[in-house]
Amino acid sequence: MEKRIDLNVSHVYGTVPRIDIDAIKPEAEAGLAHVLNGDAAGNDFLGWVDLPSRTTEGLIDEINVTAEILRLSCDYVVSIGIGGSYLGAKAVIEALSDSFAAYGHGKQGPHMLFAGQNIGEDYLAEMLDFLKDKKFGIIVISKSGTTTEPAIAFRLLKELLEQQVGKEEASKRIVAITDAKRGALRKLAEEEGYKTFVIEDSVGGRFSVLSPVGLLPIAVAGFDIDSLIEGAQDMQRELGKISPDNIAILYAATRNALYRAGRKIEIMVNYNPKLHYFGEWWKQLYGESEGKDGKGIFPAAVDFTTDLHSMGQWIQDGERTIFETVLSVEKTELELTIPEDKANLDGLNYIAKLRVDYVNKMAETGTRLAHVDGGVPNMRISIPALEEAYLGQLIYFFEIACGISGYMLGVNPFNQPGVEAYKRNMFALLAKPGYEKETEEIRKRL
Ligand code: PA5
């Protein structure tokens, strides 16, 4: 691998000395061994570990062909899904897209829209109104095939599409990604004759971005899923062995050392607005994997320098329970220098002729020093560029480090029992058949 993402943890040593991190590295190594050997809790959900190397050219081709069919027949494609069936694709597409693509700027393919990630009536009504006279298709993604949010969105959008183009044409423009056998979506897809892709039983939602769940929307958006997978394969080779250079071991050991030293909140920081949704994806990955049994680092995310003008005060000066992990993109895609201005009324001539990114990098360095001085330990992940291969590396790195870190915390990183509580109450309040007793009980509490 010529270039790769890298991790620097030297700016945490003021809070946890290197020796403390080294001391718990054997725990991280044991965590990696559990992930690789499948001999600990949650071992029936480890299908993602060798997913990159198991992804065949045949599958990539099938996804690309399906994407091309949607690209040719639609101006808009709605990806319906929530949580792990949404955030990975959204994160990669945002990271690679022109910031103004929605307004017709940059490379154009069908526009990707997202639904089923909320139950916003206005959001859905506006989407239906917007699409009513547009050529659109649907990718509906739900591993369980029973999740309420995407099911509502799919029912509405399917009805609109069938009204617009007829049932037969609609069934050609709908692709379902779901469990191999079970679930309402599988049954519906078979009955309606939709093209389908399978989410393997052993790949949990939040670990599924490198499966068809993420790959199909990313391919429809016009990005190179082959390179994304190649990047992940590079990391699979590199991080799948216990070695002193293993950055997943280093990241997991460092964040757990910080947690044990009272740092309960990790803030994922980016200095590139295109990485906003990468922070959202990371929050789900770590939040759902680690937050259980009364334990877990709270994952938060901010966009700098934007949020230095909102959260900056808290981070610099608030309760010292945080640490930050910075995603730093080394090279921008485009170049822009700050112009000289004769009048210099804004006093900016001292940075005239400098690249905007240089100013951004100085903001990053200055902020790191200020935060470290203010008692905020800082880790830095450098990404050579926002390109498919490096995003593939980053995704796999965070996934494997998450498994290691969860085992270090002493939790099962691959279940999410806490997600069921709100669903139970919502179903009871909606009087879902089968929830009669819960409905009676919850109504007494209102
Ligand atoms: O990580 C997870 O397992 C969850 O976030 C799921 O992805 C999310 O709840 C959506 O589930 P499903 O794909 O079954 O609709």
Q: Concise description?
A:
By secondary structure, the chain is α/β, with parallel strands linked by helices. The model has no long low-confidence stretch (mean pLDDT 96).
CATH topology of the largest domain: Rossmann fold
Shape call? globular
Structural class: alpha/beta
Low-confidence stretches: none
Written overview of the protein:
With 446 residues, the chain is an alpha/beta fold. It has three domains: 6-37 and 233-409, Rossmann fold, CATH 3.40.50; 51-227, 3-Layer(aba) Sandwich (Rossmann fold), CATH 3.40.50; 416-446, no CATH class. The protein is 48% helix and 14% strand. It has 17 helices and ten strands. The strands form two sheets. It has a five-stranded mixed β-sheet with strand order 1-10-9-7-8, sandwiched between helices. A five-stranded parallel β-sheet has the order 3-2-4-5-6, sandwiched between helices. Strand 7 (265-270), helix 12 (276-290) and strand 8 (298-303) form a beta-alpha-beta unit. Helix 3 crosses helix 9 and helix 4 packs parallel to helix 9. It starts with 5 loop residues before the first strand and ends with a helix. The structure holds 5-phosphoarabinonic acid. 5-phosphoarabinonic acid binds at residues 82-85, 142-144, 147, 150, 204-206, 288, 416.
Map the helices and strands.
Layout: E1 6-11, H1 18-37, H2 51-54, H3 57-73, E2 76-80, H4 87-96, E3 111-115, H5 121-131, E4 136-142, H6 148-165, H7 167-172, E5 174-179, H8 184-192, E6 195-199, H9 212-220, H10 225-239, H11 247-260, E7 265-270, H12 276-290, E8 298-303, H13 312-317, E9 322-331, H14 356-373, E10 378-385, H15 388-409, H16 420-429, H17 436-444
Parallel strand pairs: 2-3, 2-4, 4-5, 5-6, 7-8, 7-9, 9-10
Antiparallel strand pairs: 1-10
Helix pairs in contact: 1-11, 1-15, 3-9, 4-9, 4-12, 10-15, 11-15, 12-15, 16-17
Bound molecules: 5-phosphoarabinonic acid.
Residues 82-85, 142-144, 147, 150, 204-206, 288, 416 line the site of 5-phosphoarabinonic acid (PA5).
